[in-house]
Amino acid sequence: MGYYINSLKYCYILHLRVLVSIICSQNLGNRYTHAYTSMLHSLSKIRLIATDMDGTLTVNGKFNSLLLQAFHDLNVANIKVLIVTGRSAGWVSGLAHYLPVVGAIAENGGMYYPSGRETGISLSEIPDLIRHRQQLAATFNKLKAKFPQIQESSDNRFRITDWTFDIQGLTTSDLELMANLCQNMGWGFTYSTVQCHIKPQAQDKAIGLLQVLPKYFPDYTAAEILTVGDSPNDESLFDARYFPISVGVANVREYVERLQYKPAYITKADEGEGFCELAKMIISKMPTVN
Ligand SMILES: [Mg+2]
Q1: Do both 139 and 219 map to the same domain?
Q2: Does 227 lie in the same domain as 104?
Q3: Ligand 1 centre from 287 Cα, in Å?
Q4: 239 three-state secondary structure
């Protein structure tokens, strides 16, 4: 990972001037006007899109025909799609098999499922899986003692590295308190639009992606990779030190002021329609071959 991070520094410096002005600005309008100019210039080089799934590829919780058409068009343009989601290992192994993508990272950086391979690859070091699941369950039960309304998510039984419960009905201050409680118990905590995750502290989307990229996509430079997301568990994908070209779909605006790392550009459309808008923009900027 150290080699890869060093190789990213050159590209990072190139983008630093633009991005510092973006991140430090208090004015969202100016921020994204400057970012838009930078983005348009960068898009012609993109060869791989690492994207969140829920709220970024979905529309009202579902894939639609426009998304599948966008995947097809990106494939024709030789632009790879790699899903980076908080969803469970069980769900994601199926998606990596059936969708036209190069692979999918599950559980916010916990597991990797390359397309065409039956078994997943662990990205998180877990020496004793049974004990790990027991410890996660115990942590969840301690949270439930303080928040009796929380319910284990339906996909939790298909998880390996983390533990999830539904976010519905929880306030921002509830989530902040839960994050502190988890930290005090030695666990990490994050959340998306659908779920809360109790997870190993050194596990997030960026850490997982930065393991996968040099091993499985060694020929791709940082300038050729674009990251996309919509919520707090995508924050690490917006960290310009590692991913200088990042995009939020429009619904990220609900969270963007809470994020330490912010996307360089925000689409006009929400959710999967924002992803399709981005895909069209990238394809339109590709150099034409005569
Ligand atoms: Mg999401």
Answers
A1: no
A2: yes
A3: 31
A4: coil
Instruction: Summarize pLDDT for 168-204 with one digit per residue, the tens.
Output: 999 999 999 999 999 999 999 999 888 999 999 999 9
Closest CA to 242 of 265, 220, 210: 210
Which pLDDT tens digit goes with each residue over 105-146?
A: 999 999 999 998 878 999 998 999 999 999 999 999 999 999
237 CA to centre of ligand 1 in angstroms: 12
| 78 and 18 co-located in one domain | yes
Query: The tokens of 87 are what?
Result: 């969803």
**Which of 199, 230, 261 is the endpoint of a domain?**
199
Please give the Cα distance from 112 to 122 (Å, whole number). Answer: 6
Cα(247) to ligand 1 centroid in Å equals 12
The answer to whether residues 110 and 228 belong to one domain is yes
CATH number for the domain spanning 41: value is: 3.40.50.1000
How far, in Å, is the centroid of ligand 1 from the Cα of 205?
Answer: 11
For residue 79, report the distance from its CA to the centre of ligand 1, in Å: 21
